[in-house]
Amino acid sequence: MVTGKLARGASRWLPVMALNGLQLHASPREPRLTPWPQPPAGPRGESAHYDYCLLPYTPKATTARDLASVNLLRWSWQAHGVLAQGEALLQRLHAGLGPGQVVWGIKQRVQQPDAASWELYFYRRPHNPQPYTLARVAELFAPLVVEGAVPDHWRWLMFSVEFDVAQLRGERPCASSVYIASSGLSYKLRDNHPPELENHYVFRDPLTGIDDILARLQVSVHAQPHPLGLARLLPPQLMRCFHVCVANKRQADAVYWSRVDLAQLQFFLDRHGWPQPLRAQIADHAPQLAHLCWDLGADFQRAPDEATGVGFSFIKSGIYGAY
Q1: Which residue range is the domain that position 206 belongs to?
Q2: Is residue 213 part of a domain?
Q3: pTM of the full predicted structure?
Q4: Helices (H) and strands (E) in the chain, counts
Q5: Do residues 296 and 52 lie in contact, with contact meaning Cβ atoms separated by under 8 Å?
Q6: Domain count, the chain
Q7: Domain for residue 3, yes or no?
Q8: Is residue 116 within 8 Å of 80, Cβ to Cβ?
Q9: I need a labelling partner for 116 at 20 to 30 A (CA). Which of 59, 153, 172, 300 fits?
């Protein structure tokens, strides 16, 4: 679900800052959004398309009317009344870091249309600017406050900043996390607290690594080793993908699918009950989004009384892209 850089320069990556286009909640007082077009490749030939690991991929057939995947993030922000704050943050990050540096995620709680949050991820890649640190990104988040610090000696692969509506409005500090290189481990970072283990994850090929994927899910403390449970966790509609990731978290486990197509994205959003206005936006712009690959994730948690007997329920799902 990724797009690449939005343009060659900070002045070009936000094609229209006037808010006149489509919206998620119908209201005559709300401005309408103009979707942002798919940006071209960078001036030195850098990719215009990245997945949620900030690795380049070749898009499907493209057209002059293609849209950037970051429009989903903008539609989500508008639905929650924080579009102006979100776009201002994107402007600051792009001006300070350049194009093709940020992965974004929209997180949606099950059956809670108002319970959305967002996360921005910053990977260590060859095309990063210098300096490229959590401290630098925290400066660009200002006036928003980002908690946490990454010492110079840590060998990190990625760090991220997560926020909800109140945090994007500056009402509370934003949380940060760091992902340690070559470990599959991530830690939550807070001011004046030690790092807290948050996540242990592995990536596998959906064909050659399926035995390892199944083995990890069969020993999950959040699901019973039941064939129906595995079918719910690994629906065949999503297994035509680049990688499957299994993650063990503090209070849940999760499965992720990378580089799926638009039809798979729509299946996923329907399956996990995402708000209808966002699904309608995607359907309305399907021809202009079909060139992209997408990345998806679903968290599941132990539920002993779950009616199907598989022992778990999905509690959260996410869409990921890059710009």
Answers
A1: 10-322
A2: yes
A3: 0.88
A4: 10, 10
A5: no
A6: 1
A7: no
A8: yes
A9: 59
